[in-house]
Amino acid sequence: MARPLDWQLATVAGLRDETDSVRSFSLTLPAWAGHRPGQHVDLRLTAEDGYSVERSYSIASEPERAPEVDITVERIPDGEVSPFLHDVVVPGDRLELRGPIGGYFVWEASQPGPLLLVGGGSGVVPLMAMIRHRARAGAMNPTRLLLSSRGPGEIIYREELDRLSVIQDGFEVVHTLTRAQPAGWNGYARRIDEAMLSEVLAPLGREARVYICGPTALVESAANALVRIGLAPSQIRTERFGPTGT
Amino acid sequence: MTDITTGDLMVDGNALAGLLAELFGADVTMVPAKCATCGEVNMMGGLHAYVRAPGSVLRCPICGAVMMRIVRTDRATRIEMRGIAYLRFERALL
């Protein structure tokens, strides 16, 4: 079994397009030590001349899927790594990675109590690992995902989230569409703000644990608003991924 | 597209988990670190991290003081941590 800091070779077992610019990669890792929902992997690409570049990607799949691990990657047009993953990588290819990494942004079904997950765009990825794990573990704790997407075609994992929402195991997804809404849309249609967080949090109560992941500006504003609403900073875990992914 | 400001470039200490684990030999994102400037204690994973530079910088999320700088070159890694009063490692981690 590989230790988290050993680089290991993953084989790409499958690809799935989540939206026009977001693709999931299923990776098989024979020596995978197992992960906790919310952790990430470091992926390393090395060119023939020895130049190498590393990026961190959140794990999207639940630990129960091991030794298969999914990552979900947004294609950033001027990025160094994501265009390669999207345009070049096919099933059977091998990728060098290490992990699982980071015990800070982690939620497991053994942690009881209401849970608020707040995601912006591909910030939903580590939250999805928590949601999938929660479903597999049979947890019934009240859980709400507030997911901000630009438009209906840009909602990552849309069908799966809708499916998980109707099981009645206490999980619910609330969407906000910030730029384009389909005809007849009666959900939120603006950026996440304090009033929205207040409404989404209300059924969970102020004791909820909160995980926020997304672009830094979104995470900052959501975390600050929740503190103004009365949550303690220690209840809130954040994962900022900067201005965009790369 | 909005303008990118310095604030937008900030991520969490958790983003440096891999590099920090290389240096400390264990995952330190859950290790409490006391800021030498303001005295607040925060977990390493919750510090503010600036990683898009030749080196990486961890700052106190409360007062903004620099707590740790890490610079890697081909030959060595230099860690400067005058801004940290202490790190507290649980025995189970070691």
Describe the 3D structure:
- The complex is a heterodimer of chains A (246) and B (94).
- In chain A, 20% of the residues lie in helices and 32% in strands.
- By secondary structure, chain A is α/β, with parallel strands linked by helices.
- Chain A has two domains: 94 residues, Elongation Factor Tu (Ef-tu), domain 3, CATH 2.40.30.10; 126 residues, Nucleotide-binding domain of ferredoxin-NADP reductase (FNR) module (Rossmann fold, 3-Layer(aba) Sandwich), CATH 3.40.50.
- Chain A is globular, with a radius of gyration of 18 Å.
- The model of chain A has no long low-confidence stretch (mean pLDDT 94).
- Chain B has 94 residues and is mostly beta strands.
- Chain B has one domain.
- In chain B, 9% of the residues lie in helices and 35% in strands.
- Chain B contains one helix and eight strands, in the order βαβββββββ.
- In chain B, a hairpin with a 4-residue loop joins strand 4 and strand 5.
- Chains A and B meet through strand 6, helix 5 and strand 11 of A and strand 1 and helix 1 of B.
Distance between the termini of chain A: 30 Å
- SS-based class of chain B: mainly beta
Biggest interface between chains: A-B, 24 and 23 residues
Number of strands of chain B: 8
Please mark out the parts of chain A with pLDDT under 50 across 5 or more consecutive residues, or reply none: none
> Distance between termini of chain B?
45 Å
| Computed CA radius of gyration of chain B, to the nearest angstrom | 13 Å
Topology diagram in text:
The complex is a heterodimer of chains A (246) and B (94).
Chain A: E1 8-19, E2 22-28, E3 40-46, E4 52-58, E5 68-74, H1 82-87, E6 94-101, E7 115-120, H2 124-137, E8 143-149, H3 158-165, E9 171-177, H4 194-201, E10 209-214, H5 216-229, E11 236-240
Parallel strand pairs in A: 7-8, 7-10, 8-9, 10-11
Antiparallel strand pairs in A: 1-2, 1-6, 2-5, 3-4, 3-6
Chain B: E1 10-12, H1 17-24, E2 32-35, E3 41-43, E4 48-50, E5 55-59, E6 66-72, E7 77-80, E8 84-87
Antiparallel strand pairs in B: 1-4, 2-3, 2-8, 4-5, 5-6, 6-7
